Amino acid sequence: MKKFLLAAACAAVALTGCATPTTGTTTANGNGTVGTAAAIGGNVLKMAVDNQCRTELNANNAFRAIALTMTAEQQDALETKVCGCVSEKALQNVSAVELAQAAVDANARTQIVANTVAKTLTACYSEFVGK
Known about the structure:
By secondary structure, the chain is mainly α. Helices cover about 80% and strands about 0% of the residues.
């Protein structure tokens, strides 16, 4: 998992390194360092939240019971819907400062991911399974 997160962080840095930041603090030379760090942190956090969500979802007894009645494709589709919801809500519940911390500090990222998944997994699960 550490290699996955490292690869994800590298990919996020490579993909957002040339992007022009639209938010955050702008320095005298026009660089939005806080905005760029938050964007990188957002990408890294989103991938980490999705991974943590899938792990927790598959460990959930209620989900495992429902999954027994589904094909592999149906189970994967449900996981994708639920964890996509969790990933989107995660970014809404995390500040720019936390996103910047997630980009550079693995311990902070782990804590932010755990808190965010705990707050949003049940709501998203109920949204898609409760229908």
